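Repro:
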Amino acid sequence: MAYPAKFPQLNRTELTDHARDVLVRVLRVAFPHRTFPDGPYERTADIILAEARGSTWLRVTLTQGLLTLDSLSDGDFRGLDESAATAVLRGIERTDFFGFIRRTAVLNLYDDPEVWEAVGYEGPSFDLGGYLHRGFDDLDWLPEPRIEEYDGDPLDPLPGPQRPRTGTSRVPVDVVHSSQPGDIAAQHDGVAR
């Protein structure tokens, strides 16, 4: 990572047009969707930049991270092909810089109406009465479900822990609590009833 003491340009913490372009490229590489138009990536970059402008720490972190990406990419991260750009991002994925981008992008990129359109999501439906009568199953990119009725012999229940019979409760003694010291619940075979 680049540090402010060594690089005076970090002290200015300017978020330039070049920084925005690098950020859009970072978002495209980190969240690759061929069907997404540029608009959602650009709007997400603008949200990240706006958040960074509101906090000195975020602004320095973002500026430092974007400069570091360029320095790890022979001067311009935007010029890397997909696999090289992905490798550079994997090298910094545990940094505060990348964590800030990831958190903000997940919350905002996928909340963009253009992204909803690209994936076939019709948007929230609570204000329209819910999804029951509004195409809850009309996604055209999912295969049709295979629904078959079973008309054979009754099946045995799956093996696993047995549930207590109705009307009985078996609680291990060590979890039975009493308000009186020395008071012990009635027990039988190590189980309170």
